[in-house]
């Protein structure tokens, strides 16, 4: 896997400002008691991901091609745990 240079402007602790606060979506599989979940924000040119359990969660930012590659890998089972 290739390493990519980090953007000098990217700070996961302040990246939440890049996204519309009302557009965060919790997984439909989220536990009702606030268990292990993430929220995504499908911005116009980027995707944000954060932890629902942390009030000031850092936000990880992906561009559209990175997000598409991640979704394809999930659907292909690349991250499945061994049986």
TrEMBL record:
<dbReference type="InterPro" id="IPR007278">
    <property type="entry name" value="DUF397"/>
</dbReference>
<protein>
    <submittedName>
        <fullName>DUF397 domain-containing protein</fullName>
    </submittedName>
</protein>
<dbReference type="Pfam" id="PF04149">
    <property type="entry name" value="DUF397"/>
</dbReference>
<feature type="domain" description="DUF397">
    <location>
        <begin position="22"/>
        <end position="75"/>
    </location>
</feature>
């Amino acid at each position: 896997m290739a390493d990519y240079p980090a953007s000098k402007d990217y700070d996961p602790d302040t990246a939440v400002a890049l996204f519309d606060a009302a557009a965060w979506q919790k997984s439909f599989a989220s536990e009702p008691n606030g268990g292990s979940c993430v929220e995504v924000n499908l911005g116009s040119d980027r995707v944000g991901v954060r932890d629902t359990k942390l009030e000031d969660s850092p936000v990880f930012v992906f561009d559209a091609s990175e997000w598409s590659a991640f979704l394809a890998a999930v659907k292909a089972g690349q991250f499945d745990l061994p049986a």
